[in-house]
Structure formats: C-alpha cells, structure tokens
Amino acid sequence: MAGTFEPAAADREPTPKYLTALAAAIKQSGVRVVYVEPQFAADAYRAFVEENSLRLVPLDDLGGTADRDSYEALMRYDVQAIADNQ
Q1: Greatest CA separation for the chain
Q2: Residue 80 belongs to a domain
Q3: Where are the alpha helices (DSSP H) in the chain?
Q4: Mean pLDDT, to the nearest integer, of 82-86?
Q5: Among 17, 44, 45, 56, whose Cα sits 20 to 30 Å from the Cα of 8?
Q6: pLDDT tens string 12-71
Q7: What element of type H or E holds 36?
Q8: How far apart are CA 85 and CA 20, in angstroms?
Q9: CA nearest to 68, candidates 41, 43, 38
C-alpha cells in the first residue's frame, strides 16, 4: 500500500500537493490497483486513477447480498478480488 486517496481527515478533498506526493509514492512502489468501497463515489478519484494508469477494483465492506450473506463469505469475496488483481 502506497497511501490513501483521502488524507487523514476524510471530510476534506485531497490537495494538489497531497495528490502529487501520492502519485510519486505509487510510482515508486509499483502500485497498479486502487481498491474502493462501493458506497463511495468513484468519480471523485477516477481522474487520478486514469492519470496514473491504475485499475479501480471494488471491495465490499458491507455484504448483505445473496452471495455475501455472512462475514466469511464477504471476506472470501474481498480476498478473491484482491488475489485476482495483483
């Protein structure tokens, strides 16, 4: 993990300086994937993902669907999503 899209205060937009530092950390560490939670609007960071040639992969932290109706099923789903996108 090279960093997070949101700075420490999740209620603020990341500054250009923060995004520049994050892009440098991503490049240095070889990150290729950004994992997101589906309840957050991906539009906010889609441009950053595209500019840095990254893939956007959703992870489900809520569950409650037919195939993710238990904690174990939810964790298996997320682990598989991570494994499939390395």
Answers
A1: 42
A2: yes
A3: 16-29, 43-51, 71-84
A4: 91
A5: 56
A6: 778 889 899 999 999 999 999 988 887 776 777 888 999 999 998 989 888 888 888 999
A7: strand 33-36
A8: 24
A9: 38
**How many CB atoms neighbour CB 53 within 10 A?**
9
Range of the domain at 43: 34-84
Neighbouring residues of 27: CB distance < 8 A, sequence distance ≥ 6? 52
Q: Which amino acid is at 61?
A: D
- The number of domains in the chain is 1
Residue 77 domain-assigned (yes or no): yes
In this prediction the pTM is 0.76
Strands 33-36 and 55-58 come out as parallel
Closest CA to 57 of 83, 23, 26: 83
Find out whether 26 and 2 touch, Cβ atoms under 8 Å: yes
Rounded distance between C-alpha atoms, residue 49 and residue 56, angstroms: 7
